[in-house]
Design goal:
The structure holds two protein chains of two kinds.
Chain A (H helix, E strand, L loop, with lengths): L1 E10 L2 E11 L4 E5 L6 H8 L7 E6 L2 E2 L7 H6 L1 E4 L11 H11 L5 H14 L15 H13 L5 E5 L7 H16 L4 E4 L3 H7 L2 E6 L2 E7 H6 L4 H12 L1
Helix pairs in contact in A: 3-4, 3-5, 4-5, 5-6
Chain B lengths: L14 H33 L5 H16 L2 H15 L2 H9 L4 H29 L1 H9 L4 H16 L1 H14 L11 H12 L2 H30 L11
Helix pairs in contact in B: 1-5, 1-8, 1-9, 2-5, 3-4, 3-5, 5-7, 5-8, 6-7, 8-10, 9-10
Classes of the chains: A alpha/beta, B mainly alpha.
Bound molecules: adenosine-5'-triphosphate (ATP) and magnesium ion (MG).
Chain lengths: 242, 240
């Protein structure tokens, strides 16, 4: 479904990604972790072409992301993405947020978009918030709307970039619950997160990044149960303390 | 001081008519120049926030040029120098056949100058929103143009209602410079009344009041509009 082959990226002289290769099969859930600045966000943004890369290849559903001839908007329209800061559009209501790309990108009718929005809001437990504006919702609620908004496009895969890092602790679970449900429903997911509880519950594989490299890429069982490299060991002990 | 106050001059013919006509010219110059400034300024401001180096460069050149030459100098350049720089035929046309030459020149000059200031506001408004919103729009498959249309501009124009209001008021006040190239707007008419009647205090008081009435009305109107556009739940936009 998602395939990265020897991807490298530079900001001027500085190399952010160094020869990264991995893949995410259909229905698989892959968790990406690693220290701050290790390139996790950059890697995940390369997958839907929000960041350009200079070397290597990325394929999503058979389409080459880095190819100059690729219609990026069309490709992105069926890869959902959820951001650390939610990024709901503040000037329109929750429902309109979910309808926008259905109307403007997929060309769905107003009725159909509206029905989808209502169905998805129910799925994330927010039917009663449909007509509010984003700023009137809590962080956890906003992030659930953001997930609903991404799902409205019927994505073949979902990318998450630290979806719970900006949330107060008591709101983390309501978002993780929605994500766990998605994972068990068979959604293909690539999730940057430090929530190791989430990784233990639903991840198939865990990727550990450090200084732009993929240092570990193994099954969840291997990652948590056997001896890891030194850097991963230090990282894990640090985040598990919290 | 031996000054014969005579407020009656203001409602006497033809002085009353002069004031009214001057006021209408002021409004016409301001509104026409504002339409030009707002449209062109938006385009230039947006250009400066795109990914294209070329568009950004053109936008920067425009802003730096028009913002840094004094407005009065620009007025003279457009009126006296510009026609001379054109190829002969075009220069002749501008000098002889341009409809309402003083008015048109004043509108173009004020409009182009203010566009550079509007552009800076538009750019600041868009930049205040940040990369995250842009990415969110792109990630759902919107084209870059659609991201501007549906995501960035609706929010950034709300943010910049107050500075745009003040730019409009500035254009309105700057329109008095049009008298230097012969547009008989409010200030010019007040001066003319002074010359004919020696009642300068009355004439300029009337002109001042006219300016104040318009600026306060505009400010009030924009407060109302700002309130209408307020986004529910938002305390201040543009942070983050
Ligand atoms: N636009 C940019 N220009 C230059 N350097 C950048 C830019 N964006 C990111 N970087 C650098 O690239 C590196 C990787 O950044 P990235 O955001 O991918 O890290 P991350 O693993 O997501 O970190 P975090 O956990 O803090 O989100 C960092 O060192 C960062 O400073
Ligand atoms: Mg990051």
């Amino acid at each position: 479904m998602i395939e990265l082959k020897n991807v490298s990226k530079w900001y001027d002289e500085f190399q952010v990604l160094n020869d990264c290769s991995t893949q995410v099969a259909k229905g698989e859930v892959v968790v990406v972790c690693g220290p701050s600045g290790s390139g996790k966000s950059t890697l995940i943004k390369c997958v839907n072409g929000l960041e350009a890369f200079q070397k290597g290849e990325i394929y999503v559903d058979g389409t080459s992301v880095g190819d100059a001839g690729t219609n990026l908007p069309q490709l992105r329209s069926h890869i959902g993405m959820v951001f650390q800061n939610f990024e709901l559009f503040p000037h329109i209501s929750v429902t309109e947020n979910i309808k926008l790309a259905q109307l403007k990108v997929l060309g769905r009718s107003d009725d159909e978009s509206q029905q989808n929005a209502a169905r998805l809001l129910e799925r994330v437990g927010l039917s009663d918030q449909a007509d509010k504006h984003p700023a009137q919702l809590s962080g956890g609620q906003q992030q659930r709307v953001a997930i609903a908004r991404a799902l409205a496009m019927d994505p073949v895969a979902m990318l998450f970039d630290e979806p719970t890092s900006a949330l107060d602790p008591e709101m983390i679970n309501e978002v993780l619950d929605v994500m766990v449900e998605l994972a068990t429903d068979g959604m293909t997911m690539m999730v940057v997160t430090h929530e190791m509880g989430f990784a233990r519950r639903v991840a198939d594989r865990v990727i550990f990044m450090d200084e732009g490299r993929i240092e570990e890429d193994c099954s969840k069982e291997e990652f948590f149960n056997s001896e890891r490299g030194e850097r991963a060991q230090i990282f894990l002990s640090k985040i598990l303390e919290h | 001081m031996n000054y014969n106050w005579d407020w009656g001059v203001l409602i006497r013919e033809p002085y009353f008519e002069w004031l009214v006509s001057g006021f209408l010219w002021t409004i016409s110059v301001s509104v026409a120049a504002w339409i030009l400034a707002f449209s062109l300024g938006s385009v230039v401001g947006i250009a400066r926030t795109t990914n294209s180096k070329l568009l950004r460069g053109i936008g920067t050149c425009y802003v730096e040029t028009f913002r840094n030459i004094p407005l009065l100098v620009q007025m003279f350049l457009w009126y006296f120098v510009f026609p001379e720089l054109l190829p002969e035929d075009a220069g002749m046309w501008v000098k002889r056949e341009l409809p309402m030459p003083e008015f048109t020149t004043a509108v173009v000059c004020l409009g182009l100058y203010t566009a550079s200031r509007v552009a800076e506001q538009v750019r600041a408004g868009i930049e205040a929103i940040g990369q995250g919103q842009r990415n969110a729009g792109l990630a759902m498959g919107l084209t870059p143009a659609q991201v501007y249309r549906y995501v960035l501009l609706p929010v950034s124009y709300r943010i910049i209602v107050p500075p745009l209001t003040s730019e409009f008021l500035t254009i309105f006040k700057n329109s008095s410079l049009a008298l230097t190239i012969g547009v008989l707007e409010t200030t010019a008419q007040a001066r003319q009344i002074e010359e004919y009647t020696f009642q300068g205090f009355e004439a300029f008081t009337a002109a001042t009041l006219l300016y104040i009435i318009v600026t306060s009305t505009v400010m009030l109107l924009m407060k109302l509009i700002e309130g209408r556009l307020r986004i529910p739940g938002m305390i201040s936009l543009g942070a983050k």
